[in-house]
Structures are given as C-alpha cells and as structure tokens.
Amino acid sequence: MKIERELMRGAGPVAVLKLLAGGAKYGYELVEALSAQTAGILAMGQSTLYPMLYNLEAQGLIVGNWASSPSGRDRKYYSLTPAGQKRLAHDSEQWQAVVQALSSLGVLPSTSRVATIGGVA
Amino acid sequence: MTDQPPFTSHVNPKHLGIARLGTDQEQQIKTFVARVIRRARLWRSERNEVHMELLSHFDDGADAGRSAEQLIADFGPPQVAARLIRQAKLRNRSWKWQLWHRTTQVFAASVGIVICGFLFLVARLHLAKHGPRTDLVSTFDQATASIAVNDRAWPLYREGLTLLNRKSIDPNSVDFGLVFRTPNLKDPADPNWKRAADYLKANAKSIDLFIQAATLPRLGYIYRDPANDVWLKKRRGSSATETYPLYQPTSGILLPQYQELGCVRDLLFMSALFALKNKDLPRFRQLWQAESHLATQVLASAEFTVVHAIGNSIAGSALSLIRHLVVEHPELLTNEQLQGWRHDLTAANWESKSSAVDEFRRMSDDTLQNIYTAEDQGGRLTAQGARFLLQSLLLSWSFEPSPCAAILEEKQAAGLPQEYTNELQYPNSLHEAFQRELAAVRWSATLANRRELRLEAEKLLTLIEEELAKPLAQRTPVTESSYFQELQRIETTPEVFRRYWPILMMFPQTIADWSGSISEPHRMYLEATQASLALEQYRRRTGHWPERLEQLVPVDLPRVPLDAYSGQPLIYRLVEGRPLLYSVGPDRDDDGGKPLSELSWPVIPDGDEQILPPL
User: Fold this and answer.
1) What values do phi and psi take at A74, rounded to 5?
2) pLDDT (tens digit per residue) in B148-200
3) pTM of the full structure
4) B20 in contact with A, Cβ within 8 Å
5) Are the Cβ atoms of B80 and A32 closer than 8 angstroms?
6) Alpha carbon of B7 to those of B53, B57, B79, B81, B297: distances in Å?
7) Which end of chain B is more exposed for a tag (fewer CB within 10 A), N or C?
8) How far apart (Å, rounded) are the C-alpha atoms in residues B127 and B281?
9) Which residue among A27, A53, A58 sits closest to B91, beta carbon to beta carbon?
C-alpha cells in the first residue's frame, strides 16, 4: 500500500525517531527496519531517508557519529538526543490522539489492531 | 569523465562492499553516487561526508545481497535525492551563513525584479510607435508654395541679408543694435552717427534689395528651401533640412528669418532718419513705404504671436518715422502731403490673424503627437518622443533635473553652443547614452498619458482664452492669473510635476498678447500717430497747438485716442510750447511722461510710453 506523500511527511520523522529510540542505527538499517516493521507501509524512498536524517540532525533531534562496523567499514550511526526523545514523546501523543479520533469516527476499526513500530504501542 | 567525483574521500574504495558486485556494478554505483553528490552542490566537507555515507549505504545493500540495479532503483531518482540532500544540508549550516544566504537571495531577487521591470519598460518604450503625424513645417511650406514665385519677397531679403557686412561697423565688436539704437543717433555729433552713415553707405546694395523686396505682395519664406542654406549656415551654422528635420523638431519652431527681418527694419529706419536729416522727402517716403510694407508682409506671413509682435514692432517703427517727420521737419510737408500720410495710415494693412490660443493649441497638439502614440493606442510615450523631450530640455529648459542639467553642464563645459545642432541628438558617450535611456524609461513610467496631458493643455487654453476675451485694461496681471497659478501648481507640486512637466515646455509663463504688448498698444500707437498728424493740421489751421486733445474732435480727429493700458484718453499737455503725448504704460499709472525703465518680465517696468515727441 502506497501512503500519500503528505501523510508520509508527517509520519516519516516520528517513525525514524521511534526506531532510533531502540538504539543507534545507520541509514541502511533504518531503511530495512522501516520496511520490515511496518509491512512495507512506511518504507520510504532512500533518497528521502537521508535528507530526513539530515533535517532531524539540523533540528538537534538526532546526532550522527562515524564508527567502525564489525566488518571494519566505517558507518554513520544515528542516535536520539534528549531533544529527540522529547519530540518523540510529544509526537507519539499527537499520533495517538489522531488515531483515537479516527477510530471514534469509524475510520479505523479499533486502536488495538493498529500496527506498532519497534514493538512499542 | 564527468561522473567521477570531483572531490576526495578518506574512504578506500577497495574496502567497500560494492566491490564484491564486480567492476561494472561497482562503477555503476560509484557513478550514481557521484551524480547525486555533484548535483547537490555542497561544500567540500559536506560532500565528503555525504559521499562516504551513501557509499556506506550501498555497501550495506550489497552485503545484504542486492544488485546494483536493485539498490539504485530503491534509492530513487538522483536529482530528487540531490535536491533534498542539498536543502537538508543548507539547514545544517550556521545561522551566520543562513543570514548571509537569505540576504543574498533577497538582494538578488530585488535586483532581478528591478532589471526585469527596467527591461519591461525599455521594451514597452521601444515598441510604442507613433501614429500618422502632421508635419507642421510641411504644412507651412505647402501654404507658401501656392504663392507665385514672383510674388515672394523673401529671396530678395535673403540676398540682401547675405550681402550685408555686419562686421564693418566696428572691428572691436561694437554691437549692431547699439549703433542703430535710435536715441543714440539723434545727434549728428554722436560718434556713432558717422559710423552708421558709413555702414549704410557700404551696404547700399542690400538696402536697395530690401526696398525692392518690400514692393512684393507676400513674404514667401519656405522653411525647408535648400536655397536658404548659404544664409542659414552663415546665421545658424546648419542647412535648411538640418534646421527643420522631419519629425525631429523641438517643441517649437525656429524662426530665424524674423530676427533677420528685425535687422532689415533697423536698416530701413536708420536710412529713413538719414534721409529726413538730409531733408530728402522722396527718399524718406520710399523707405517709410518699404518699412510699412515689410510690416504687412511679416504680419500676414505666419500665425505666431512672436511674428505678430515683430510685425507690430516694424509697423511701430514706421509709425515712429511719421512722428519724427511731423515733429522734426513739418516744413517738408504740404497740407496735401499731410493729408496723404493720414490716408496712408488709414489704408495700412497691419492686421494679424495670430491668436495666442490658436498658436498654443497648434503647438501643444504638435508636441503631443511627437511625444506619444495615438490616444486610441494608449497614448504612451515613445522612444522618439523621449528624445524629443530630452532635446527640448537640453535646448531651452532647465527645470528638469537629471539627466538634462548634467548633460547641459557638460555641453557648456565643453564650450558647445546652447543652440540647435545635430550633435545634441546623439549621446557623446556610453555613460550619456545610458543616462538618456534611464531618463526615457523613467519618464515612460511616470509621465501622464497623452489624453491626460491634452486635457491639462485644454484647461490652460481655456484659462488663456477667458482672460484674452477681456479688454486689456480689465485683464488680471499674468502673475496673479489662474493660468499662471495652474503653471505654478504643476511646477511646485512634486507628484504633479512628475506627471505633467512637458506642459511647462508647451505653455510659457509669460504670454506677450496677455499684457497687451502686441495688439492693443499697436492700435493705440496707430491712433496716436494719426493724432500727431492731426495736431499739425490743427496748428496749421489755427496757428497754435491745442490745449487739450478734445479740441481736435471732430474736425481733425473722429475721436480722442484712448490709452490701451488705462482705457482713458491718452495724456496730452504742452511742455515748453510743444506737445507732450504719452500713455501710462504697463504699470498703468501716470509717471508724468517719464520714459519706461528697461526692467524685464515679470517685473512690470515703471514709467510711461512716450509718443510725442518721438524717442
């Protein structure tokens, strides 16, 4: 299922923040996780992911650090900053409110059946 | 070639996961990444980091078993990636850079808008085309062309003027007008007397040609006649076609012939005074008739107030000759001759068809047609029209600042004459050309359109017409009139001035006919000269001068001549047993016959206009 661009623009950053809440991750890992954990629904073009990471970095919500991988190659790992954690909490509340509102309108069948990211509802 | 990254990276390509995909696929990925990086247009440090990260991304993809094609397809279009990466990286830069960048963007956008606006106005100006135009000079020439060649006096005047040696009076630049100014030459003991006599003798051929020319019925001056070239080049430095270029006139028409005919007037007048001193009445009469006919020719030749003024001044000079005759040498005249002069005066045809309103209407219409497109085409300023305005400003007006004042100063500093030359039509440098273009564009954006300017011109014409309909004695002084105030409003209100300043070129602040300096005083002098002859007739009949002018009525005069300035009878009294006759003059008060001061407009000269004895 293809998500509308405007909806993705709102959901993408919070999804990335949520994934990083589980620990530092590099770009390709985030791509794979988004695709796998959302059944492909929030899979975004990789050309969009890196600019999004740079934007979150510019806002001070995440920070990137180069580190060596087990294979010996350098990778840039992104992790959540305290500001990013606050933003994630705030955005999560907002999304929950949206989901509940849509459920009460009957747009969504029930909040319990909504897919979760990173196993945290 | 171009797909190789134009930067360095500390990542050793040999250690990359994509190397496992084989040389072709590795090269394919490297090329793709290089394309993204190059398009993103980042700083070197940013480029290196993004380059490393993207290669790392593809390494991870290759490690996950993806082919180059799959990885590139999953990544998405390189141009989108490059654009988004650039935008994101710009947001990451320092606030100082962001401020500088925004400022630069705003400045560049502003400059762009100004340049686009300027180019739009330039295009608009240069695309504006005139509709069909009337060539004023041609209409005058066509009217003159219908006069039979043998009836045209101008060729003889021109021949006489060309022969005239103007420098023979005094090599030390004694002014021609000074020598021939009448008050200086009343006395044969005056040193100028002999010089003037010598001058007239040396130029006798010219004077004979003038007398001969005056016998012909019409002046017949053709503006674009190449036969005028020798004379025009001598007097103005340009040929007939250069002086009257088609569709490149100034806001007016050059009339050098009338200035020259003023010179003919002076020569005929002085010759007649010399004949009178020699008591040569036939020669005096011949010269008087020549001057009188010259006045008739001039007055009938063109409908311009300045021509009217010059024609009347020639007629006034002829009238003055009669008063000189009757005051200084009445013994030369028999009673019959005296009556004959009175008859000649009555028969003199010195009427002019000129009207200030018609003239200003004609000239303002001509100016509008030379500045703008047709009214139904929007009445916009044209490029030619802008040159016309600039030319007019350079030649005659100083009220409009940049660029005219600056250009004019440069011309004057360069010693160029402030008169019409073709050089003035063309800029002397790129800087001057740009200045002119800038002025033209500014005017095209700010000037009122043709219709608005025409309506303003009509408003002023109505104000002139209303004032001129009143008798001279009841007219408002020009500087207190609604007409003058309207011109002042245009000149002194910046927003009105910006839109309507060409009006100030079309309408002068002083109108000769307004203060009556043309028509009414001329009629007054004509009647006063009749009265001078009547006074002599009265004296001959009674043996003494009358005490009052009323004594001349009705035997010697049908009515007492009126003063054009006051509306009252002319002032007359006997001083030392001789008649003193004068008008109160433009200041409208009696100064006891004191001659007029020589103050010029807008100061109204003090004093009176003396008629008898003649000055």
Assistant:
1) -80, 140
2) 999 999 999 999 988 886 654 544 434 455 555 544 566 777 777 777 788 88
3) 0.67
4) no
5) no
6) 14, 19, 19, 19, 92
7) N
8) 68
9) A58
